[in-house]
Amino acid sequence: LLSHFSSIGFWGLVNNAGISTFGETGWLPMETYEKFADVNILGSIRTTLAFLPLLRKYKGRIVFMSSIIAYFTLGNGIYSMTKAAIEKFCDALRLEMKKFGVQVCIIQPGNYARSTKIQPPLSAEEIWSELSEEEKAAYNKEYVQERANFFNSILSEGSTNGNEVVDAMVDALTSPAPKARYMVAKLKEKVLVFVCALFPTVVMDSVLSYALSK
Fold it and tell me: What range does the record give for the signal peptide (predicted)?
């Protein structure tokens, strides 16, 4: 493998690191937001800046792991926030790298929680015990239990076919004409993205509010 790539130098960088958690905005302390920004956003930026000179030199590829959750959120806004930021970073980088022959690709998986184990199930008791007194006063255990059940049910529906995402990453690295974005998701997930991208915000809010109330 090394001898095969020695002639083309440093060819590809895949930014795959990421962490996830569940919780409404006020449930998470500032330290958690800082940790997520450091790993999910700044981690990818650090590696990109470190290898950019080599990637420009050898006209290589940069692949970023985003998510369809960059378009909407269902209880994990902190993760959605970081993926939306990566999307915008990539949009700028992709345009800037064209003149160097470097191609930038984004992978947008749907729900592959059962493949990646990125997010373990959370119990209502665990969530409640971490809430501040202000948040406990604003919510109640029954609501937290409902949200935990909802989110854990989403996790349980995740695809186990993680090879589908890997195949997209390989194509992004090896195709003569890679796509700017690879959306690897179920039809209903793609429909949600379509609605979010093309319909007024009030429509998407209604759809997500309905989903959250089920």
Answer: none
Residues 119 and 155 sit within 8 Å (Cβ to Cβ): yes
Q: In this prediction, what percent of the chain has a pLDDT beyond 90?
A: 63
What does pTM read for this prediction?
A: 0.88
User: What are the residue ranges of helices labelled H in the chain?
Assistant: 2-5, 30-36, 43-58, 77-97, 113-116, 124-130, 133-138, 141-156, 163-174, 187-198, 201-213
C-beta of residue 73 within 8 angstroms of C-beta of residue 66: no
Cβ atoms of residues 188 and 211 within 8 Å:
no
185, 68 contact by CB (below 8 A): yes
Q: Which residues are catalytic?
A: 79
Q: Are 41 and 79 in contact (CB under 8 A)?
A: no
**CA dist 67 to 31, 82, 123, Å?**
23, 10, 24
Give the domain ranges of the chain.
12-119+160-213
CATH topology for 12-119+160-213 is: Rossmann fold (3.40.50)
